[in-house]
Design brief:
Layout (H helix, E strand, L loop, with lengths): L1 H10 L2 H16 L3 H17 L1 H8 L5 H15 L3 H12 L6 H16 L1 E8 L5 H15 L2 E8 L6 E6 L2 E6 H15 L1
Helix pairs in contact: 2-7, 3-6, 3-7, 5-6
């Protein structure tokens, strides 16, 4: 048990980690891991789309009562309830909304770990086709030996190729890096 506990410590830590772990345990006991994940994803999308919500979450200017009132109204409007809704409301009442994005990330990491899923971030120059995305997923699954949750990031600055970050490993097969290597080699020769 101590070994698993220490693994959780490295997976998520700090205030956000403690809250994420508590939420994960509650969701596990209620057999609601996927439902909580869906609600947290929906709330996370709301945060990404709204500068006002970002301000509400990050600004210490708002009182706990103002934060709880606003969050309660948003959760009701979005149809987020149950464990996730209660959790977000609790976090607001404890004035910990500033750490909510970290809590959501920590929860996702715990879910992935429990399901044996490895996360990978793939940076490409342009949005890949469905076929190309399937090829990337299959290749990463072969390398990892597990299912891989792939997050695609589009960055035209890499010109072409891709950059893959999976766990502590990173493979940079971008055209930009290859051109920079050639440029450096040419400087050394000349």
């Amino acid at each position: 048990m101590a070994e698993g506990g220490s693994q959780d410590q490295t997976l998520v830590s700090g205030v956000a980690g403690r809250y994420a772990t508590a939420l994960f345990e509650l969701a596990s006991e209620a057999s609601a891991i996927d439902a909580v994940s869906a609600d947290l994803d929906a709330f996370s999308a709301m945060i990404a789309e709204s500068d006002d919500l970002k301000r509400l979450i990050s600004s210490p200017v708002f009182t706990a009562e103002e934060q709880v009132s606003a969050i309660t109204a948003l959760l009701a409007k979005a149809g987020i309830g149950g464990i996730a809704g209660n959790f977000i409301g609790f976090v607001a009442s404890k004035r910990r909304l500033f750490a909510l994005p970290g809590m959501i990330s920590g929860y996702r990491a715990l879910v992935a770990e429990a399901k044996g899923i490895v996360s990978a971030e793939v940076t490409v120059a342009e949005e890949p086709s469905a076929k190309r995305l399937d090829e990337i997923r299959a290749t990463l699954k072969d390398v990892a030996g597990k299912d891989v949750a792939v997050a695609i990031k589009v960055d035209p600055a890499i010109i072409g190729g891709l950059v893959v970050k999976m766990g502590s490993r990173m493979v940079d097969a971008s055209l930009k890096t290859k051109l920079n290597s050639i440029r450096l080699a040419m400087k050394e020769v000349g």
